[in-house]
Amino acid sequence: MTRFVNKRKDLNDEERLHLFMLLFKDFDGKKLIHGSITKNAELFGVSCKTVSRIWELGLKFIDDGEVVDLAKKLRKRVGQKQIHLDIEKLKEIPLRRRKTIVSLAHALGMSKSTVHRRIKDGVIRRHSSAIKPQLTDENKKARLRFCISMLQVQSSIDGGTKVKFMEIFDHVIIDEKWFYMSKETEKYYSSSNIVGSIR
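Structure for Transposase Tc1-like domain-containing protein, as requested:
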């Protein structure tokens, strides 16, 4: 005997109701006649489990004295449930683990696709965080003093004086950013209600 293979995932509204009516014809008031579920499963190209579920749902409507509405009942049961995202947990994750979708997904204990869907939904947003220099008056004075210290006053032939910058061949000037691990601009993933800089 050839084993029945389920080739369909779901039935439309009319087919569900038709299936239930055929099953109801095989109902003696207490139970279905033997082989009814298997017969109708093969007829509609679905699994026996699907047939049993439709039958049980239909009977529940009848027991409750309601009109059999299998389409409405099934729609509430199908589809993947959305995975809840804990915003507070997201805020507690260190910034270094929120730079990429992969690291964020690992920290949240979710798949990359789930995190990507939350980004598309607007629950998670990518933020740009720039470090803005804030020079104080004392900083400005220190820079001016350094510039003045590099000046040399020399006497000229005509008895006057002239001012010029000293030779700096024995000086090494290095960009101060080389000494900092933080980049001037970083990108992080955070909740959509965050406004402004987050570091």
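Residues 48-63 form the longest helix (16 residues).
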